[in-house]
Structures are given as C-alpha cells and as structure tokens.
Amino acid sequence: MNALKKYTLITGGSLGIGRELAHVFAQNGHNLILVARSRQELDDVRTELSSTGVDIITIEKDLFNPGAPFELHRQTTEQNLYVDILVNNAGQGLYGLFENTNIDRELAIIQLNIASLVVLTKLYLQDMLAQGGDGKILNLSSIASKSPGPWQSVYHGTKAFVQSFTEALRSEVKDEGIVVTALLPGATDTDFFNKAGMTDSKAVQDKSQLADPAQVARDGYRALMNNADMIISGFKNKVNVAMNNLTPDDLAADKMKQQQKPADS
C-alpha cells in the first residue's frame, strides 16, 4: 500500500449526514473515497467539493449486497489507496409494527447496518494496524442505540449492535494507536424517514425539531479528531439519553411506542 497519500473513506457519502461529512473532511484537507449506490449523486458531491483541492474518488457500490464490502476493500487495495480514516455512515431503517413489516427488507437492513459495517471495519482496521497503527474509525450509531424502539424495532436493534461493537472495539485497539468513535445523532433532516416509510410518524411531524445534518457532521468530525469515545449530537438528544438511562427498559419502550406511532392513530 502507498501510505504517503492517505484517504478518508465514507460510506453513504452522497446524501444526508454522509454528504455533510464529506464536506467537513474535504474542507479540512482530507482526500476522499466516497461510496454510494447512485453514480449521479456521487458525481454531484464531487462537483460540490471540487474547489477544496483534495483528491476525490467515487465508487458506486451497493452495500446491501453481502459481497460488496469485500469488493470495495479489494478495489481500494488494488488501486494502492491507503484508507487511514474509515467512516461507516451508510444505514437505513424501516417503519412499522414488526408483525407487519417485510422480513426481506429487514434482513437487508441488518446486512447494511451491521454486516457490511463489520466487514469494512475488520478489513480496514487490519490495514491500519499493518501500517503501524495510525488510523481512525467513525461509526454512525444513533440515540436509537440507547433505547428499545417500537415501530422501528429492527433499526433500533441494529444501532444497539453498532454502539456496543464500537465501544468494545475501541477498548481492544486503544493501545495500538487506533481511534474508534461513535457518532449518535437523533432525528435529523435527511431522506432517512422517506426511505424508512416513516413520514407519518409522530416523531417527525415537526420538521423544526429535526437536527441540521451539517451540524451533526461537524460534531462527529470534531469528536473523532479529539479521540472521543462517543458524541451525542445536540443538547436535546443528550438530555433524552440521560433520561432514558434512568428509565427502566419496559417504560422506555412504551414511551418510544407513543412517540413513534402514526400521527393519525
């Protein structure tokens, strides 16, 4: 590998928080590898960032496909691209009562949110260690990781995995010079809710309460650069997580069920 030219690889780097993370990293002089499913959206981001002067490589890849993370790593390796910062941002949810939701869609979300993240983390972590242990990993968790989530039971479950996995990995590699950080946003003004079929939920009716994805990205970048173990983005979200920590899980689940149910129910 060519360790002289380093890259930050961002999955889901064409929209939402991932797009804003691309802006933050580029503005701070990081060369980028942006990964997403849409060629047009990737091209749009590359055009937006062209004035930053950093090297921007875009790779069209569908991380819902179990083979895709292995292909992605092989592709960057063959091109001698050294990833010293990995940002596992790609993720999706699905709204509805578990008894009614589509199991194939849920298995795909588990593949994207968990399996692809684990594969990419392992492969690029091994590269970082082989290069002497100078690397960083930012995993997109969520405040959903901190409480059960009726109406989004699988999504909350995947984020609970990401949070636990990230904290465990941080402990394993902290003496190896690798930084591992979890970014926990709350409800954010992105296309997440449309893709999850969640626009009717009470939780997203008031658009003014949705966080700015650019601010979430700035919080995540700053936390990673400061070697923080995790960052809950937004004061309101910090308060909500603190309150949930004091609430029994069954009561927290019932509260979330009321917050996330359809607005017309």
Automatic annotation (TrEMBL):
InterPro entries, per this entry?
A: NAD(P)-bd_dom_sf, SDR_fam
Classification via CDD domains: SDR_c (cd05233)
The entry's keywords: Oxidoreductase
Matching Pfam families, A to Z? adh_short
Q: Which Gene3D superfamilies match?
A: NAD(P)-binding Rossmann-like Domain
Q: Please state which protein family the record places this protein in.
A: Belongs to the short-chain dehydrogenases/reductases (SDR) family.
Spell out the protein name for this chain: SDR family oxidoreductase
